[in-house]
Amino acid sequence: MRSRLSLTALALVAGLAGAPCSALAQSGEQGSAEATKVLASEGAGFNTAAVQSLLNRGDAAVASGNLEQARKDYDTARAASKQLLAFYRDLSGAFRGLDARIPREMDTKGRAALGLLAESNLRLAALFRRQNQPEVAVPVLVEVVRLMTPSNPQGQKAYQSLLELGFVETPFSAAKVGGN
């Protein structure tokens, strides 16, 4: 577990190191708060856009046949999503009852991080299935169903994969939710 967190931290630092330095140079000239928001940058910060970038890199690695690199990118995206989700939840809770704008923002960001976590898990599971490791895919698929619920398209996709693997036997029909 410790090595996974270290790997995540290393990947995030590497992403920050690759960020353009022009933003830092501009901060001295303009004194603008926007120029110093390194973590908010699109592809190299610590945010949902950076996680999406990791997923895209993983997809490119799969397309080129580099499954080992894809797994690293998906694992890093998964770990970063979990960290973001926890941080957004902590901040949301800390500001509840004090300033409603901040919990609303953190809840919105948390939902985005949760969606990326589900996507990371789905891609990892597909990778495991491709590598004939269905038993390794099961826990990440179950996590998607737990996090997203079976009524969500991502949860339905994960449950369908569990059905295809033979882990579960009862098909789920979204139309029956709330019925019966």
Describe the structure.
With 180 residues, this protein is an all-alpha fold. The chain has two domains: 1-41, no CATH class; 47-176, Serine Threonine Protein Phosphatase 5, Tetratricopeptide repeat (Alpha Horseshoe), CATH 1.25.40. Helix content is 71%, strand content 0%. It starts with a helix and ends in a 15-residue tail after the last helix. The relative contact order is 0.08.
CATH class of the largest domain: Mainly Alpha
Uncertain spans: 1-31
How large a portion of the residues is in β-strands, by DSSP E?
under 5%
What is the CATH topology descriptor of the largest domain? Serine Threonine Protein Phosphatase 5, Tetratricopeptide repeat
Integer tally of domains: 2
Supply Rg: 19 Å
Q: How far apart are the first and last residues' alpha carbons, in Å?
A: 42 Å
Shape: flat
Order of helices and strands: HHHHHHH
Number of helices: 7
Features:
single chain, 180 residues, mainly alpha, Serine Threonine Protein Phosphatase 5, Tetratricopeptide repeat, flat
Write a brief structural summary.
With 180 residues, the protein is mostly helical. The protein is built from seven helices and no strands.
What is the strand and helix layout of this fold?
Blueprint (H helix, E strand, L loop, with lengths): L1 H16 L4 H9 L17 H16 L3 H29 L5 H30 L3 H15 L4 H13 L15
